[in-house]
DNA sequence: GTCATGTGCTTCGGATTCGAAGCAACTGCC
DNA sequence: GGCAGTTGCTTCGAATCCGAAGCACATGAC
């Protein structure tokens, strides 16, 4: 109870902090650039980019939520915002009457195209500038593995078990 | 066509996405664990951890804001919340009458101690499990360099009040 | 067919965030 | 001493986020 000394050594702590800080700093700068260049939030940009990358330019809400790391309700909010601005359209899925298909519009693509160069430039300046080619490859490999692992690890695994305990079972 | 083609190759994109996704996923899981274990937000945990790490257990607001990547106003909000819960105290700095010194309380340390084991466990399960020792070292090195570069290079939004250049309107 | 359960998305309420503006104290210069 | 510009923090308003609850359709059991 009183102890359980931290099983994290200095290197692990360093990696953890570096990951959090680097991503936070990068995200902040990117958000500012996106705001300036196209009045987009980071999520909105991610959504547009995802849609623009899709062959048909459209995806279902659930698939979008899976790709991005946001909550369903947050996604709804942003999709509404984007629709108001005419950057995407939302329509009922043909198959499933409940499903909503989001599609990027030409204007959406235009905004994307307008924002992209600056986005890339910022990444070059902030993230890639101090890294070698090999560093980038290594980074992609290591973080890719970490991400894949986290994606498939259920939230209630060894470390994070717990659910609301409501007395009876559910 | 008229626009500059994206100077980002597949590897760079992979590294970028992996960084964002991995940190987002990790952050979400960690936030949930912190909420469950000690009713703390991620920022609050970072603040407590930073204070707990300081020799005297106290720091000035500005120093805290520098360490964490949050805005001044957000820091004020969280500090107030923590103070209400009795996890920190705030007092005027002796030197500078404007300055506010934040100090972690015994109760704050207790909450920290309670939350820490689960936090570490989660990191082990989610982040470090799929990585070798060498991976972690490499990660710390690469991301550490990236972070340091970002900290000193960019126009920071949080640092806000910039020096004005004499003789020109802004 | 009908009911029970599951799934997809939205709505609702509350918490947290940020930037801009505001106040107070410090510093340098005269 | 007094003024002007800086710096440290807070307040304010608006935007964004999430989880829980709700609604509507879908699917499976009977």
Structural overview:
- The structure is a homodimer of 170-residue chains.
- Chain A is mainly alpha-helical and 170 residues long.
- Chain A has a single domain (24-151), classed as Arc Repressor Mutant, subunit A (Orthogonal Bundle).
- Helix content of chain A is 61%, strand content 8%.
- Chain A has 6 helices and 3 strands, in the order ααβααββαα.
- In chain A, strand 2 (88-92) and strand 3 form a beta hairpin.
- In chain A, helix 1 packs antiparallel against helix 5.
- Chain A is globular.
- The first copy, chain A, starts with 9 loop residues before the first helix and ends in an 18-residue tail after the last helix.
- Residues 156-170 of chain A have low confidence and may be disordered.
- Chain B binds a DNA duplex (30 and 30 nucleotides) through residues 41, 43, 60-62, 70-78, 80-81, 93, 96-100, 157-158, 160-161, 163-164.
Tell me the name of the CATH homologous superfamily of chain A.
Winged helix-like DNA-binding domain superfamily/Winged helix DNA-binding domain
Provide the number of structural domains of chain A.
Answer: 1
CATH top-level class of chain A: Mainly Alpha
Strand content of chain A: 5-15%
Please tally the helical runs of chain A, counting DSSP H or I stretches of 4 or more residues.
Answer: 6
What's the total count of β strands of chain A?
A: 3
Classify the helix fraction of chain A into a percent range. 55-70%
Cα(first) to Cα(last) distance of chain A is 30 Å
């Amino acid at each position: 109870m009183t102890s359980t000394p931290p099983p994290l050594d200095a290197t692990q702590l360093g990696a953890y902090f570096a990951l959090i800080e680097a991503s936070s700093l990068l995200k902040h700068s990117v958000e500012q650039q996106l705001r300036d260049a196209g009045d987009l939030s980071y999520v909105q940009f991610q959504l547009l980019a995802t849609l623009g990358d899709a062959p048909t330019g459209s995806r279902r809400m659930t698939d979008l939520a899976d790709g991005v790391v946001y909550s369903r309700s947050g996604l709804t909010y942003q999709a509404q915002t984007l629709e108001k601005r005419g950057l995407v359209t939302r329509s009922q899925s043909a198959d499933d009457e409940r499903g909503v298909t989001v599609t990027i519009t030409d204007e959406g693509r235009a905004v994307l195209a307008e924002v992209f160069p600056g986005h890339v430039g910022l990444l070059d300046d902030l993230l890639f500038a101090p890294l070698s080619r090999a560093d980038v490859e290594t980074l992609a490999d290591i973080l890719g593995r970490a991400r894949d692992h986290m994606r498939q690890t259920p939230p209630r695994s060894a470390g994070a078990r717990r659910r609301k305990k409501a007395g009876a079972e559910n």
